[in-house]
Amino acid sequence: MGNGRSTSSKRKLRSHSVAEGDSHAPPGDPLTHSQPSDGEKCSDPGNIDATPPNPPRPLPKKRKKVVLVLQDGSKAEEPDVIEPIIEKPQPEKTQMGLAYEEIVLLIPQALSDGTQRVTIKLCDADFKTTLDLIHETIGCKDVARKPELSYKLSNASAKAPTFNLRVEGDWEGCLESVEQAEAGKKKGGTALSVPVMIIVPEIYLLSLRSCTSKRKAPQTASSVGGKRGWKKAPALIDLDNDYSDDLGDDDGRDDDDLLEREQKMLESLENTLSTCQKCGPSLYCKIDKSGQHVALSMNQRRGWAMSLALNTHGVTLHSPPKSPLFSAFHGVGSTPTSITPTSQPVPQTPVSPAPMSDMWGMAFPSMLAMMMNNRMSLVNHSSMVAPLPSTTRDPLPIPSSDPPAPEGGLYPSIADFLTSLIAQYPKHFTEDRLIGEEFKMSAGNARFLLKEVKDEMKRIARAKGKRQ
Fold first, then answer.
1. Under 8 Å CB-to-CB from 296, ≥6 apart: which residues?
2. pLDDT reading at 309 higher than 50
3. Which residue of 28, 40, 370, 404 is most buried, as measured by CB atoms within 10 A?
4. Do residues 271 and 373 share a domain?
5. Alpha-carbon span 136 to 138, nearest angstrom
6. What is the pLDDT of residue 412?
7. Is residue 27 predicted with pLDDT exceeding 60?
8. What would the pLDDT profile of 409-449 be if each residue is shown by its tens digit?
9. What is the pLDDT of residue 59?
């Protein structure tokens, strides 16, 4: 009985894979070469004589496979036991770059002395959208002329320079500056937001307030009754016209390009006008409506060339512009007696005896008539030049074949210059601006005209230097 129970217990132990360290296993038993499983013990409640196995050894991270022999004689492999890998918690990374995925702008307003705080999400912060939002906050969305913007970070010093904000590249540079500033400004490991101050010229805000309220800027005084105590109000900007500033960098390049085109057109025009078989190549001849040959002056040729350079409608190398200078070629009812050959320069006096208002009165009626689209009658061209001798004098001799003498004046007439000026700036001079008390001009237009006169003199001087 005892041997039978012992044999039965041993068979049961074999089925449970208790082999290694079992002193009762018979020699040659294949189970003696198998490895015990993890934590597996030899336990049989019916086997009293069974010897407990040796204590298990420490398990490696990965061991060999164990073959199990079941009661029915089949074998099975125990799966590998791999020690699980426990991931250590990683420390939270500090957020670098722009904080909270937003950017804060401090924008001044024209209707108040305060500054508006505006928050923009970076996903919506493209340059065009941001620029429209800035203009809307300032209050200049509905005016023609927009301000020249610049910016500075709020943590910058008072003496730190400002940066332009005109093109998309400037806006990208602003975002990079904010990112660098926020990366270096932390509190508790978190990046803090750095607002951006939008800077608008003070004269623009003052002009916008005056334009919005329809009131002139008041004068300030430190004392009453004394001239020294009064401060002159600054000159306001004309916001109704979108032309570049007086100190713009593009003006010089545009003027040079226009001067170059004018010079090319002048050469082509003179080559065309010098092909007259009757007058010869020495005169720049043009046949008027009455069939007479008229030698064009330098002022007329330059005015014609300027219109060609500006691509004026209806002006070609054979068709002059419709201006008072060429009324003999376009005007209705012109007669040969009313035409003076321009090869004979009109006498000019160094100082005009007429007052300043008379000079403007002679120049602006023609310009006003052109801008009103022929709604007013044109001023007679003869009223814009110096008085001529009596028409009863002997007819002038036919121009000789010699080259024409140098012109008496270096600069063109006011009417010729204003004609080209209107073509360049058709929106600057409007009907309501020109209809005024004295000169029919506003203060802004007067300053603009004086500036253009000076620029025209410089362009003529440069052109004369190139021709020489």
1. 273, 284, 285, 286, 304, 342
2. yes
3. 370
4. yes
5. 6
6. 60
7. no
8. 555 666 766 776 666 665 555 555 544 554 556 667 767 77
9. 59
> Domain containing 188: what range?
99-207
Tell me the pLDDT band of 126, cut-offs 50, 70 and 90.
Answer: confident
The residues with which 69 forms a beta bridge, in sequence order, are 75
Question: Are 29 and 116 members of one domain?
Answer: no
CA 295 to chain centre: 48
pTM of the complete model: 0.34
Number of Cβ atoms within 10 Å of the Cβ of 177: 17
CA-nearest of 11, 78, 62, 66 to 33 is: 66
272 and 189 share one domain:
no
Q: How many domains does the chain have?
A: 3
User: pLDDT value at position 156?
Assistant: 87
**Which of 87-91, 185-189, 211-215 has the least mean pLDDT?**
87-91
Strand duo 220-221 + 230-231: pairing: antiparallel
| Paired tokens of 296 | 């064009």
Lowest mean pLDDT among 42-46, 138-142, 194-198: 42-46
Is residue 19 within 8 Å of 50, Cβ to Cβ? no
The residue among 156, 182, 207 that closes a domain is 207
Give pLDDT tens digits for 338-378: 434 444 444 444 433 344 444 444 444 444 444 444 433 33
More confident residue, 322 or 5: 322
pLDDT band at 294 (very low <50, low <70, confident <90, very high): confident
Higher-confidence position of 212 and 201: 201
- Which residues does 446 contact at the CB level (< 8 Å), separation at least 6? 439
Residue 143 belongs to a domain with what CATH number? 3.10.20
Query: CA-CA distances (angstroms) from residue 112 to 109, 144, 155, 206?
Result: 6, 21, 24, 11
Say if CB 437 and CB 443 are below 8 A apart: no
